[in-house]
Each structure stands twice: as structure tokens, then as C-alpha cells.
Specification:
274 residues; mainly beta; Outer membrane phospholipase (ompla), Chain C; 1 helix
Amino acid sequence: MRVHAPRGRSAAGIVAGVAVAIVSAPAMAADAAAPDAVPPVIEQRDVKTEIPNLVYAYQATGVTAKTMGVQAYGLGLVGGGAGQKAVAGGGAAVWGSPVDRLTLIGDASRDQFGQFAPSAAAVVRLLGREGDGWSLGALGKFKVEGFATGPNNEFESELESGLLLSYARYGWHADLNAISGFGLGDDGEIDVEGRLRLGRDLGSIFRVGLDGQTRVRAAGDNKLVGGRTWDFAGGAQALAGFGHFFGALTAGPATMGVVSNVGFTAVASVGGST
């Protein structure tokens, strides 16, 4: 007796179908598991780029939206001519970005003359974005004790505004500021400032460079300390950041706050950002 294969299907066709099913099963299982196997994307930010104003120059990009940061710092000034006393100061700053492109900064410090000098500032990023080449921003700032105490030892205040230009790409960083300050007292002082910061990343943790500012008394009868019409401060800067925390040291020559000749100033900073 002969046994016939079912009509319409051959033994070879059955074997081929079984082989296709065996080969396809692992691929189908992998596709089904793929959505669960993809790890969540975690945004990694460099804390060194989340500091809107480390010492002198501001960065035009501000900080990332919905983040906050804090910084404590100490400063000292030594040297200068005869009669110049070594002085020390320091303070703390806090900042945050409630919405994209806007960074708010509050600072409470005691300057090198021992006088309380609080300030509040806003940085608005007009063009560009963080870490992507050129950015343009604007600064508005109000500070107390901007020039000197008044004739009756009352606090005087200053209103500043300026344009901020920043560059960040390929491990290079640059911040250039042009700022004007207007005294709100009766003497009508006007200052014009230029601030510059240059930096180069050394790996993922360290950045080295320069940071400083120059100030010119453009109007008003009162001179700057030492009878000057212009002064400066700045020097080399080393910045380290790891995780959410950072530390920095900036040191170099200065005539700001120096009665005569040139002194030496240093600023040490520690802080963090969310």
C-alpha cells in the first residue's frame, strides 16, 4: 500500500515552512523585547558651563533652563605702594533660569574695603545656544555701593547695562563684555567697562585660561581709587568641575582698590549647580 502526501502540499514544502519558522522566531522575539531594552536617555551637562559669572566676565548663554546654582567666594588684595594695606572680602552668589534664555543672578558680598555690596542681575540670551559657537546676550544689573558711599555715609547705587558675546566649541571658550554703569547719586558718575575671559578645556574636568576687566571713569568729578581715571584687575584662571560641583582660583595683577602702583589680587570660588 502506498501512502500519499496530502493534496496541495509536498513533504519538501512542509520542511521549508518549519525551517522558516525556526529562523524567524529569534528575530521576532528580539523585536518584541526591543522597546524594554532601550536605556533611558540621561542628559549630561558640564557644570563648568553652568556658571553665568565666575569672577569678572559674564557668559552670554546664561545657564540651562529650570536649573539653579550657588557659589561662595573669597578675595584678597595685597601689594601696591606705601600705605597700602592688605585687604580681604568675599560673599556668595545664587542664580537660576526660570525659562529658556533668561538667567537671574543675586550676589551678596563684602568688598575689599569691608563694605556690604549686594547686587541683582539678569542675563538674556538673544542669539545662539550653549556650546554651539557664537552667542549674543544682554545684561541688566543693579548694585549698591557701585562707586562709593555718599557724603553722609549713605549707600549709593549703580545701574549697569551691556552686551555680552560668547564663543564655545571644540574645547575653546571666550566671553567678551561691553558694559556701562550709571551712578544713581547726585554726582552723575559714568563708568565704561570691558571684560574678557578665555578658556581651554583640558579633558572633561579641567579648564585653564584668563579672566579680567578694565574700567574707565567716563564722567563725574570723583576719581577712582588712587586718583585714577581707569583701572584693571585680572589674571590666570584654573577651573575644575566634576558632577554638580566646581572650584576655581583666579589670580593676577590689579590696580582696582590700589592706592598707588600695582597690587596682586586672588579670588577663590567653590559652588555647584543642579
